[in-house]
Each structure stands twice: as structure tokens, then as C-alpha cells.
Amino acid sequence: MDFCCTQFGKRLFLQWLCSPCCQASVIEDRQKAVQDLLSIPNEAKDVCKLLKSLPDLERLLTKVHTQGLARKNKDHPDFRAILYEDTTYNKRKIGNLLLALQGFKTAVGIVDTLSKVRDEFSSATLSRCVSTAADGGSFPDLGEALEFFDNAFDHEEAKKNGKVTPSKGVDQDYDDAMRRVKAATRDLEDYLETQCRHFKCKATYHGTGKNRFQIEVPESASRLAGAGYELQGQRKGFKRYWTSRVKELAAHLVSAEEAQEAAIKDIMRRIFESFDRRRQEWEVAVQCLAVLDCLLSLAQYSSSLTGTACTPRILRDGEPRLSIQGGRHPCLLKHLGGENLIPNSIALGDYEDDDSAPRGARLALVTGPNMGGKSTLMRQAGLLVIIAQMGAKVPAESCELTLVDRIFTRLGASDRITSGESTFFVEVNETSAILRHATRHSLVLLDELGRGTSTHDGMSIAHAVVKELSTKIHCRTLFSTHYHHLVEGFTSDPNVYLGHMACMVENENEDDPTQETIVFLYKFARGACPKSYGFNAAKLAGIPPDIIKRAFCKSKSLEKRISLILPASS
């Protein structure tokens, strides 16, 4: 089902899958969204292409947030580590920011792509995701913020050098420091002009580092240097002086340059902080994109279904019900194709017709031959309910249900050796959880409960669990079993529906099961199956015929003994 194009969309889709929606209005709105997107295949294709180009914006926002923290903890790596590759580290941080900005520009393009058709959408959720607040939607207006960061600094230069030099008006501290540097430089230039007039010749500043701004004049003009001029050095034909005024002006410039340097050192963090101040807007945009991606995934899944597919009908009132007509297993449908699958119908709850359960029966006891499709039928029911409550179309002729609050499964067989738990203990432990937590709105799938222990114990436990589920919890349940005496005990129970996976027996032989050939029909039908045809499974597995014959004789003997111990009316 996962056709999502973005990583953050995949994460949201997984949440939808693991926790299907239990609000009818939300599910129905998603169904409308699927239909809306299926009606605009060209635009949907363009949007999917744009979504695939997006980085993982959700993760990038977290990284940028960390890099823009106003006060970092002293345990932060920036305080503890000596970054020998500081430039490389900075380039990576700048790259993350620019990647996020480019992603949000693409996001704006996605909204623009759907702006021409969004008025035709019947889904409120879809409309909100692709409309800005000005149009009554949820997607934030990112134009102003993106323009600000476009002009905040030279992106290419920052990526190349790993340093951010902000444009004018972006950072107040840096702008103030720059103004102080320019003012101090201008004062020094003005003072130099006064010295030129004083010495009546060209004067220049000379020196580096701490010896900057020594006034150099020709030796012929040095006679005009008064008591306020301190001789600092000379070279052939020239002398250099300092004055108290030039020292003062130089100190102003050094102070301004230090402030500028301090601002430069922290400018990257402040740029990231400026981005992070709009974090709520960025997160809302990502959430809108994630929902759009998930809805597109549901639409693409719905369109990929081969054969008959339908939009499930969500029932809001009445007793818990589930009706699936002509349903097919979605995983088998993908791998085998629709023409190779046999559709099956299931009805649990308040239904009454020739092919469904009797009125009020919410528990179906499923019997049938080994490998006849019982477990597949149960899994199919659970998967179709999940797909239905996600909002997608389901591979069935029709589907209607009241909402399921939880799906409980007891399928397969496994032990937990490291915990000292046997296969049977694991099964009854899982069954215990079902009995404690299931409600009348739950769907329970129990596969062959009671195996792994003695026949009497297993069948008795299975009987008690069926009774509890059908009369007290009264939830929708598919319960498969090979205990035919168990089935006989519920033949006249109005709360239990008896069904089986049909099969056809060729060369039926009451005395020699090795002569029989079982053809599985994989069709769920009314009534109980009289036999499990386990000897057929043994034959298919390659058990020698003489062993099967001996087992058959022993089976006949055991059946007689059990019929005496456990009356059919129990």
C-alpha cells in the first residue's frame, strides 16, 4: 500500500496503517480525497514527481533547530569537541539549511500545481492541505520567509567557504559592528587628511597588527612634528609618528573590528535561529505535505487494484456488523493477480440472507481441510478492515462495516525459548489478552486455539473461549478449528455461524485415505466440514502410505473413544 514519495510521508503512512482511524467522518473524507485525486491523474503525477524531489524535511527541521539553539548545553559537542574540520562541519550545516529552503520552495510549487483544481475537491482534508491560510487552508504562506533567506546571504559563497556573511539588514549585531568599523575607518581617514594639511605633504598610514596607523611623512617635513608626535621608526627618507588622537581612533577601530569578528563567529547560529523562529510554520507545511503524500498513496493503491474494487461503506448506527462480498486477499492480489484468486464473502453481525450469517451471529466457526484457506480467509478479513478504515478502496465487490476499535489476532504457532514459554502457553497467553481487552466493537481472529496440548484440554479451552466471545463480549470473530466435536456443540447456537472452506473429494475411500484426492475449492461456504482431511496433507508431504494407513486405523479407534467420553450435545 505504501506508494509514498517522501520519508516523512512514509512515517505518517505507517502511523495510519498501525493505528487505523476510528472516526467515520475522517475516513469518509479520506475516501473523498482518494476520489478527488483519481479524477486528476495528470496533476497527481506532477505532484508525485515534485514530492520525490523533496529531502527529509522533518529530519532537517530537527537538525536546523539544534544548530540554532540560543543557549547550548555545556555538554554539547560544540563545547566539548575540538573541530579540526570546522570548515567541513560548517559546510554540512549550511548545506542542511539550504536543502531545507529548497525543499520548501518545492512545497510552494506543489501547492501552486494544485491551486487550479482545488476548488473541485470534495475532500475538506485535501483542500486544507493544498490551500494557504488566505484561502481558508492550513498550508502556511512561506513566500516572505523564503524571500528573506534567499537574500540573507550569498548561498553559493557560504557553501564554498563554510562561512556566512549576512546581507545588510539581516543581523542587527553584525550591522552595528559594520557601522562602527566604517565610522572608525572614516575618522582615521579624516584625521589623515588633517595631517596632510599639517605637514603640507602627502602622509600615509603604515604598519601592521598592533603597529598599525603610524603616520609616515617625508623626512623633509618632519620638522613640523611637534611635541605631540611620538617617533616610532624611520626608513630612508621617511619618518613615522604616533599621536594620542591616532591611538584613540585606532582603538575605536580595533574595538569595532572585534565586535564584527564576534558577530561573524555567531552569525551562522543566528541565521539558523532566525530560521527556527518560524519552526511552527515549517512544521505545519511538512504536516500538510505528509498528509497529501499519504492521500496520494491511498489513491495510487486504489488505482492499482486489479479487478473489482469498491469504496467501503462506513455504518454509523446499529449493532456491530461486517459484510465483505467478493473480497480478495490484498497481498495475494498483488503477487498472483486478480484472475488467479477466488473471491470470498464474509458477514458477521446483523445480516440475513442465503450467503451470510444468520441474524445476530457475530462469531463464525470456520472449519475445513488442512491447507484449505482458513487462515488466509481470516487474514483477508483483518487486512480489508484495516484498508477500509485507512480510507482506501478495498478489493471486493462490496464492503460495509461499523467501525472496529481494535483487531486481535491469534494466528500461527511459535514458542519463546528464551522466556521458557511453550507454544501452547504463548497461544493461551495471547488469548488471555484478547479476553481481557476485546470489546463488542473489536474484530477477533483466532486460528486453531487449543493445539499444543491434549485433545480434551485443548477442545475444552476452545469451547469456553468461543462461549465467552459469542455470549459475553459479543464481538465480531472468526474462529478456525479442527475440533469437530467443538463445532457440534454450537450447531443450534444463534450467536454462532458455522462455515467451512469447501473442497471436493475424488476417489473417496472410507477404508484407505491414501486413495483419496482432495481438490481445494478455497470457497467459504455455510455449514461445518465433517473432516479435516489431515491424511491428505500427510500424503502431500510425502509420508509413506503404510504409515498413513496405520494412522487412519488409529484415528478410527480414537474417534470411537472420544465419542463415548464427550457427547455430541456438550
From TrEMBL:
Keywords: ATP-binding, DNA-binding, Nucleotide-binding, Signal. Gene3D superfamilies: 1.10.1420.10, P-loop containing nucleotide triphosphate hydrolases. Residues 442-458 form the DNA mismatch repair proteins mutS family domain. Pfam families: MutS_III, MutS_IV, MutS_V. Transmembrane segments: none annotated. InterPro entries: DNA_mismatch_repair_Msh2 (IPR011184), DNA_mismatch_repair_MutS_C (IPR000432), DNA_mismatch_repair_MutS_clamp (IPR007861), DNA_mismatch_repair_MutS_core (IPR007696), DNA_mismatch_repair_MutS_sf (IPR036187), MutS (IPR045076), P-loop_NTPase (IPR027417). GO terms for molecular function: ATP binding; ATP-dependent DNA damage sensor activity; mismatched DNA binding. One of its GO terms (biological process) is mismatch repair. Residues 1-24 form the signal peptide. GO terms for cellular component: MutSalpha complex. It comes from the Eukaryota. The keyword Signal applies. Belongs to the DNA mismatch repair MutS family. PANTHER family: DNA MISMATCH REPAIR PROTEIN MSH6 (PTHR11361:SF148), DNA MISMATCH REPAIR PROTEIN MUTS FAMILY MEMBER (PTHR11361). This is Putative signal transduction resulting in induction of apoptosis. It comes from Ixodes ricinus (Common tick).
